[in-house]
Specification:
By secondary structure, this protein is mostly helical. The chain has a single domain (about 5-180), classed as Four Helix Bundle (Hemerythrin (Met), subunit A) (Up-down Bundle). Helix content is about 60%, strand content about 5%. It is built from seven helices and two strands. It has a two-stranded antiparallel ribbon with strand order 1-2. Strand 1 (about 140-145) and strand 2 (about 145-155) form a beta hairpin. The longest helix has 28 residues, at about 155-180. The chain starts with a helix and ends in a 13-residue tail after the last helix.
C-alpha cells in the first residue's frame, strides 16, 4: 500500500470521529453504559495509546535497538499472525477481544479536548508512516508492541492500525446509541450531526 492510501484512511477516521462525537460535551464523551464498558473518550484514548506504541517500535529500529524474534525468519508464520490480527481488528466486531494491559485506556474521565488530541495524533501518525516507507519497502518484520511473540510486517501493522480505529468507531457509536436511549440517566444531549 502507498502512504497516501493509509493517510486517506486516517483522515477518513478523523472525520468520522468528529462527525459522530464532535458535538458532545465532556460529560457525554465520558459517559459509560456500565463499569465493564468503555466510554467514547476511553475508546479514543485507547487508539492513541495503542498507536503510540508503534512509534516506539520504529524508533527502536532506527536506533539499532530493535531485535526481531527468531520466529520472524519464517515468512509463513509472519503472514499467519499478520492476517489473524488484521481479521480480529476488523470493524464488524463479531468476536469480542480483550486488549493487552499496556493498551488499556486511562481510568476516569478523559480530557474535554480528546478529539483535538486525536486529530493532532493522526497528523503525527501520518508523518510516522511517510518516514517509515523505506522499512515497509524492505519488508521489515516487527513484534507486536504488546507481545514479542506476535509478529507481522510493518506494512501489515499500518493496515491493522487503520481498521482497528474503524472497529472502535463502531464501538463508540454503540455507546452513543445507548446514551441516547438512556438520556434520562445522562446530562442532556446536545444536537449532533450524527
Amino acid at each position: 500500500m502507498q502512504p497516501q492510501q493509509w493517510h486517506q484512511q486516517i483522515d477518513d477516521n478523523t472525520s468520522a470521529f468528529k462527525k459522530y462525537f464532535g458535538g458532545l460535551s465532556s460529560e457525554e464523551l465520558n459517559w459509560k453504559p456500565s463499569q465493564e464498558q468503555w466510554s467514547i473518550a476511553q475508546n479514543i484514548d485507547h487508539l492513541i495509546t495503542i498507536n503510540r506504541t508503534y512509534f516506539n517500535v520504529v524508533s527502536d529500529i532506527r536506533s539499532g535497538n530493535y531485535h526481531p524474534p527468531f520466529l520472524s525468519k519464517f515468512g509463513f508464520v509472519v503472514g499467519l499472525f499478520g492476517n489473524m490480527i488484521y481479521k480480529a481488528s476488523l470493524p464488524d466486531r463479531k468476536k469480542k477481544i480483550t486488549t493487552f494491559q499496556i493498551w488499556q485506556p486511562k481510568d476516569g474521565p478523559g480530557p474535554s479536548d480528546i478529539l483535538e488530541k486525536f486529530e493532532a495524533h493522526h497528523e503525527e501518525l501520518k508523518q510516522l508512516i511517510s518516514s517509515s516507507m523505506d522499512l515497509v519497502k524492505a519488508g521489515f518484520v516487527i513484534s507486536s508492541p504488546a507481545n514479542k511473540n506476535i509478529i507481522y510486517k510493518l506494512e501489515k501493522a499500518f493496515d491493522i492500525i487503520t481498521v482497528h480505529e474503524q472497529r472502535h468507531l463502531e464501538q463508540a457509536k454503540d455507546v452513543l446509541t445507548e446514551m441516547k436511549e438512556n438520556s434520562d440517566k445522562v446530562v442532556p444531549l446536545r444536537q449532533n450531526s450524527a
